[in-house]
Amino acid sequence: MNDTVLAVNGIEVIYDRVILVLKGVSLQVREGGVAALLGGNGAGKTTALRAISNLLRGERGEVTKGSIELRGERIDDLSPAQLVQRGVVQVMEGRHCFAHLTIEENLLAGAYTRKRSGEIAANLDKVYTYFPRLKTRRASQAAYTSGGEQQMCAIGRALMANPSLVLLDEPSMGLAPQIVEEVFEIVKDLNAKERVTFLLAEQNIQMALRYADHGYILENGRVVMNGPAPELAGNEDVKEFYLGMG
Ligand code: ATP
After folding, report:
1. Of 50, 194, 196, 228, which alpha carbon lies 20 to 30 A from 211's?
2. Over 60: is that where the pLDDT of 108 sits?
3. Ligand 1 atom nearest to CA at 43
4. What average pLDDT score do residues 122-148 get?
5. Secondary structure letter of residue 142 according to DSSP
6. CA of 22 to the centre of ligand 1 (A)
């Protein structure tokens, strides 16, 4: 498929040299799409995203089999910073805003790879049009903003690097349902209007399937099912085993 932006081919991940966590995971993300990696606690979603953005080493993890390609080129050996330069940015689970910095300072920190101040200012304006709440809270210290605002700040900060592919880890975590909905609506808008491609990891399968176009269900380190989101949402096994969780 030539519209595949990201291809993960049979990756195996081992932590601490012995703990096999991903047991041959393959997935593809279509250019301009929203793909969802779905599954319960400990299924391996975060590990898969970390493998893609080469963030496993700090966790004593290692990809021991398989390959990862961005638009047909191997990216397995690129550092997280090199990946950012190629347009791949990860938004970590748990949001990770700099608590003592203001929302605006957090956003500007996301533009660290960029040099032209005019472009950075234009990008900041763009982030504020998608996240009006962040504009209102621009001068507030992140520590004093709500969980939803911090999640928005983390996504906004990723956008400041001008990515073409955003890996979004568990955006719904710890948020009230209407805030989750607000965050997903913004993701949908960014995808439609800015053509940002998303791969999101979610435990909230029901919500994710409403916004994604393709889903991969991960269980115990293996993809056990995948398909177009409406097909998965209507599948009897998915309904019985997964919907209602999260
Ligand atoms: P969650 O929603 O809880 O983050 P997840 O689907 O993202 O779940 P992972 O965090 O990828 O799952 O974890 C998959 C498995 O790998 C779990 O059994 C977890 O205990 C294990 N694991 C994760 N990180 C490490 C680590 N640094 N060292 C050892 N084992 C780990």
Report:
1. 50
2. yes
3. 6
4. 95
5. G
6. 10
Nearest CA to ligand 1 atom 23: 47
Q: How far apart are the first and last CA of the chain?
A: 32
Among 21, 59, 220, name the best residue to mutate to test ligand 1's pocket (greatest count of ligand atoms within 8 A of Cβ): 21
DSSP 8-class letter at 112: T
The tokens 């080493």 sit on which residue?
Answer: 57
pTM: 0.94
- pLDDT surpassing 70 at residue 244: no
Q: Ligand 1 pocket: which residues have CB below 6 Å?
A: 15-16, 19, 21, 39, 41-47, 59-61, 93, 170, 203
Say what the alpha-carbon torsion angle 71, 76, 78, 79 is, to the nearest 10 degrees.
130
**Token pair for residue 19?**
């703990």
The pLDDT-based confidence of 246 (bands split at 50, 70, 90) is very low
> Quick check: 90 and 49 in contact, CB under 8 A?
yes
Give tens-digit pLDDT for 182-219. 999 999 999 999 999 999 999 999 999 999 999 999 99
Residue nearest to atom 17 of ligand 1 (CA): 42
Tell me which of 11, 23, 38, 46 to substitute to probe ligand 1's pocket, judged by most ligand atoms within 8 Å of the beta carbon. 46
Integer-rounded Cα Rg, in Å, for the chain is 17
What's the pLDDT at 58? 83
Q: How far is the CA of 12 from the centre of ligand 1 (A)?
A: 14
